[in-house]
TrEMBL record:
<dbReference type="InterPro" id="IPR006895">
    <property type="entry name" value="Znf_Sec23_Sec24"/>
</dbReference>
<protein>
    <submittedName>
        <fullName>SEC24 homolog A, COPII coat complex component</fullName>
    </submittedName>
</protein>
<keyword id="KW-0968">Cytoplasmic vesicle</keyword>
<keyword id="KW-0256">Endoplasmic reticulum</keyword>
<keyword id="KW-0479">Metal-binding</keyword>
<keyword id="KW-0963">Cytoplasm</keyword>
<dbReference type="Pfam" id="PF04811">
    <property type="entry name" value="Sec23_trunk"/>
</dbReference>
<feature type="domain" description="Gelsolin-like">
    <location>
        <begin position="669"/>
        <end position="735"/>
    </location>
</feature>
<dbReference type="Pfam" id="PF04815">
    <property type="entry name" value="Sec23_helical"/>
</dbReference>
<dbReference type="InterPro" id="IPR036174">
    <property type="entry name" value="Znf_Sec23_Sec24_sf"/>
</dbReference>
<dbReference type="GO" id="GO:0090110">
    <property type="term" value="P:COPII-coated vesicle cargo loading"/>
</dbReference>
<dbReference type="InterPro" id="IPR007123">
    <property type="entry name" value="Gelsolin-like_dom"/>
</dbReference>
<dbReference type="GO" id="GO:0030127">
    <property type="term" value="C:COPII vesicle coat"/>
</dbReference>
<keyword id="KW-0813">Transport</keyword>
<dbReference type="GO" id="GO:0000149">
    <property type="term" value="F:SNARE binding"/>
</dbReference>
<dbReference type="InterPro" id="IPR006896">
    <property type="entry name" value="Sec23/24_trunk_dom"/>
</dbReference>
<feature type="region of interest" description="Disordered">
    <location>
        <begin position="1"/>
        <end position="66"/>
    </location>
</feature>
């Protein structure tokens, strides 16, 4: 079940603290979901669209000001206006997990606290693509004079001329310009302005929000052209995809572009106007890299398009006879850094092997027998920190394509990492399609340059730790040289002061960035949540997906700062501690079995799923670069994608019908039920689709019906199904149309392209399919039932 909400409210999921006095430096939790609650602004006695009516009551202010028809922001008030955030008594029903294991995931929207042993934090998706986003152009952006909070739907209007900040409670004057509503064209209704009507809004920033004129969009591409790289054939795919999407790069008439290639030396390309063809400039001194002819290496895209297209057409053939096997990635990044420094922009790096010469040269640290030991930490630390000094917060985003992952480059520059295992244009063609589709999305998606993001919260709360890819400039300020709509962030919060006299708390993120059109913009998200007074209400509002996402981010940090074993223990202890607290503090009658609040009924299952994920699994199945890449995904993925990769969705698809189907753009999308991740749910006479986020498996049972095999797979019988089948033929049959529509619909909901593997009982990939059966035992991990017995034993100690 998925909770629906207005699209423009779907960026900033948060949590609810408990009002009891908090011990110092206590780590707390946050509640997520996929919607923002919208409260009626100030003194407006109406409900937001789609929300039920709310009761109004008086609020007392310490300054004695008369309240101006302001409905009280009580827990009941918030409950009525938050729609999906309503606290239902069902959430308090105790569940014996040992008896009720047949529970399937749902999307939850709720909230938690420290006595419950649950973490408090925020999961943010601040630059998400939104179909509805109010944009305000005004010379006056109204903010609190004390804490600089942007005016929002959760402030209190004392009268038409004064409003009270919902974060620091300072009373501010309403500016004269704000009295006029440009939407309704009415004077004297500040509470009806868009800023006070929308929890997510974007401002066109005036000149005081600029330290310099907005930078032009600048794109620099750095290609590995060593012998190994040319052999993979990736350069043909990348250059052709760039050619196809050159006109779709976000930008304007000022857009600039440049190219660098490297093997054991660095190659620059002069694209000076007037040249008949691009000119290659080689720098062989990789110990002291310099930039030759810097004025001709980053050129205007529109004015030099023909030269740029010529270079992209000829580049794949220029190094076909090269026998150079070395990789000077470090010096190439130094060169890119120097070239980009004056303006800033985005650097896209494509590498196929470990850097072997010059600054940052690495040696292989892969030891198959030591993959699950403390030596993993040594490999992670070395691979993620060697390039840190190359990634200042003002310059570049560095996605790493094709090969071993060095996560630190993207971590400190707000970038992202892509990984294509065993990429080869002939031997692994399915990876070619994946690279093409993901590169197109990467090149054409929205982008923000020279961004900073500040997160504010109500007095009494404070930020404990940030998670994601960014550079921390101060306690609440993140520098994001580039920001993209596919990046997520997590923030651990602490309760520093007692919240007993508060009815609600608020959180606000403000993202200041330069758009690809050269506009300085501020995107603001605000969330307001009720403060509850009992521990049972904390459990009632617990958001299990948010808790899992935050714990996953914390576990990655623990893996690096301590050991993988410590991170795994911390995940298990989080379940034990929270269920122990529930048993001792909430349950009035001690009952046999493993009791959990209904809201946390999936908590043990999600933690077990994390333990079996490549980032945290033991055993020798996960290679070091796979483990590091998965950790990078945990730190950078928005929650909705992280949860899908952690706990895949399983569907039976050989009996799809139109009953309950969605109708989207004249397409009928079947909606089969989600099944538990256990082989017990598989039948040999069926076909099952597993959606694991970045990959999909279609498992065909040995006795699957002949009609599905012929009308969907297009082959006469089970034995004729090809061993390496990765595409479904488009057949003119109802079964084929339904199956392809369902798979396409799933793929469209994410920014990356999941490969579809069609597998049989004797397929080599069947083991990968079975590894995602979270509830079953593996060689190195417990089954779900065994895990619950272990948790029960620890809780009942």
């Amino acid at each position: 079940m998925t909770t629906k909400s207005p699209p423009y409210l779907s960026s900033l999921p948060l949590a609810t603290p408990h009002p009891s006095p908090a011990p110092p430096n206590v780590k707390m939790n946050r509640s997520v979901g996929y919607s923002y609650p919208t409260l009626p602004p100030g003194y407006q006695n109406t409900s937001p669209p789609g929300a039920p009516g709310m009761q109004a009551s008086a609020l007392q202010y310490p300054d004695g000001s008369k309240h101006f028809h302001q409905p009280a922001l009580s827990t009941n008030h918030l409950t009525a206006s938050m729609g999906g955030l309503s606290l239902q008594q069902e959430g308090l029903r105790p569940v014996n997990l040992l008896q009720e294991r047949n529970i399937l995931p749902m999307t939850l929207l709720k909230a938690p606290n420290y006595k419950s042993k649950l973490p408090l934090g925020l999961l943010l998706h601040p630059f998400k693509d939104l179909s509805q986003l109010p944009v305000v152009t005004s010379s006056t952006i109204v903010r609190c004079r004390s804490c600089r909070t942007y005016i929002n739907p959760f402030v209190s209007f004392l009268d038409q001329r004064r409003w009270k900040c919902n974060l620091c409670y300072r009373v501010n004057d309403v500016p004269e310009e704000f009295m006029y509503n440009p939407v309704t064209r009415v004077y004297g209704e500040p509470h009806k302005r868009p800023e006070v009507q929308n929890a997510t809004i974007e401002f066109m920033a005036p000149s005081e929000y600029m330290l310099r004129p907005p930078q032009p969009p600048v794109y620099l591409f750095v290609f590995d052209v060593s012998h190994n790289a040319i052999e993979t054939g990736y350069l043909n795919t990348v250059c052709q995809t760039l050619l196809d999407n050159l006109d779709l790069l976000p930008g304007n008439t000022r857009t600039k572009i440049g190219f660098i290639t490297f093997d054991s030396t660095i190659h620059f390309y002069s694209l000076q106007e007037g040249l008949s063809q691009p000119q290659m400039l080689i720098v062989s001194d990789i110990e002291d890299v310099f930039i030759p002819m810097p004025e001709n290496l980053l050129v205007n895209l529109n004015e030099n398009k023909e030269l740029i297209q010529d270079l992209l057409r000829t580049l794949p053939q220029m190094f076909t006879k090269s026998l150079e096997t070395q990789s000077a990635l470090g010096p190439a990044l130094q060169a890119a850094f120097k070239l980009m420094s004056p303006t800033g922009g985005r650097i896209s790096v494509f590498q196929t092997q470990l850097p072997s010469v010059g600054m940052g040269a690495l040696k292989s640290r892969e030891e198959p027998n030591q993959r699950a030991t403390a030596k993993v930490r040594k490999g992670i630390l070395h691979s993620t920190c060697i390039f840190k000094r190359l990634t200042p917060a003002t310059v570049c985003n560095l996605p790493i394509y094709v090969g071993f992952v060095s996560g630190c480059i993207s971590r400190y520059s707000a970038g992202s990492v892509y990984y294509y295992q065993s990429y080869h244009h002939k031997h692994n063609p399915v990876q070619v399609e994946k690279l093409q589709k993901e590169l197109k999305r990467y090149l054409t998606r929205k982008i923000g340059f020279e961004a900073v993001m500040r997160i504010r919260c109500t007095k009494g709360l404070s930020i404990h730790t940030f998670h994601g890819n960014f550079f921390v400039r101060s306690t609440d300020l993140l520098s994001l040289p580039n920001v993209n709509p596919d990046a997520g962030y997590a923030v651990q919060m602490s309760v520093e002061e007692s919240l007993t006299d508060m009815q609600v708390v608020s959180f606000q993120s403000a993202l200041l960035y330069t758009s690809s059109k050269g506009e300085r913009r501020i995107r603001v998200h605000t969330m307001c949540l009720p403060v509850v007074t009992t521990l049972s209400e904390v459990y009632l509002g617990a958001d299990v997906q948010a808790i899992t996402g935050l714990l996953a981010n914390m576990a990655v940090d623990r893996s690096v700062s301590a050991t993988l074993s410590d991170a795994r223990d911390a995940l298990v202890n989080a379940v034990i501690d929270s269920l122990s607290a529930y048993r001792s503090s909430v349950l009035s009658i001690q009952q046999p079995g493993l009791m959990a609040p209904f809201s946390l009924r999936l908590f043990p299952l999600y933690v077990l799923a994390l333990l079996k994920q490549k980032a945290f699994q033991t055993g020798t199945n996960a290679r070091l670069d796979e483990r590091i890449f998965t950790m990078c995904q945990v730190k950078n993925q928005p929650l909705v994608y992280l949860m899908l990769m952690t706990h895949p969705s399983l569907y039976r698809v050989d009996n799809l019908t139109d009953e309950g189907a969605l109708n989207i753009n004249d397409r009928t999308i079947p909606q089969p039920p989600i099944l538990q991740l256990s082989v017990e749910k598989l039948s040999r006479d069926g076909a099952y689709l597993m959606d694991a986020g970045s990959v999909m498996f279609l498992w065909i049972g040995k006795n699957c019906g002949q009609s599905f095999i012929s009308q969907v797979l297009g082959v006469p019988n089970y034995g004729s199904i090809p061993q390496n089948m990765t595409h479904l033929p488009e057949l003119e049959t109802a079964e084929s149309i339904r199956t392809i529509a369902f798979i396409s619909w799933l793929r469209e909901q994410r920014p990356f392209f999941p490969i579809l593997y069609i597998i049989k009982d004797d397929s080599p990939l069947k083991s990968s399919f079975l590894q995602n059966m979270i509830e079953d035992r593996t060689e190195s991990a417990l089954s779900y039932y065994e895990f619950l017995l272990h948790i029960q034993q620890q809780v009942n100690k």
